Amino acid sequence: MKITRQVLVIDAPDLNVESTFWASLLGGTAVETDDDWHSIQVNGEKVMAIQLAPDHVRPQWPDGQPQQLHLDLHVEDLPSAHAEALSLGAELLQPSPDTTAASGFQVYADPAGHPFCLCWGEG
Prior knowledge:
Elements: E1 8-12, H1 15-25, E2 30-33, E3 37-42, E4 45-52, E5 71-74, H2 78-87, E6 91-94, E7 104-109, E8 115-120
Parallel strand pairs: 1-4, 5-8
Antiparallel strand pairs: 2-3, 3-4, 6-7, 7-8
C-alpha cells in the first residue's frame, strides 16, 4: 500500500474555535473552511483537519471515555510553548514534576478537550 497523503482529522463542536486554536498553535498560515470541515495548512501543506461534530463529547483524561487521540508536539522552549498554548485556550491537565529535566512532557487539552503533550528533549 502506498500512502500519498496523511491528514489527522479531529471532531469538534465549534469549528472556528478548534481550527483557530490548532492553526495558531502549529504556526498555521491558512485555514480553509467549509460548512462542516476546516483544513489547516502550515507552510502551504495541509497538516490537520477539523470536522464538525455537534454531539461531540469532550474526552476525559487520563482514564475516561472517549479518548479519540492525542498528539505529541516536540518543542524547543517549553516555557514559551506553554504560555502560547494557554493563551490560545489550552488547559494544562498534567504538569511535569520537573520542567528543568533534560526531557519530559506536559499534558494539555485543546478547547474541545482533545489531549496533547508538549514534549522536550530526547524522551
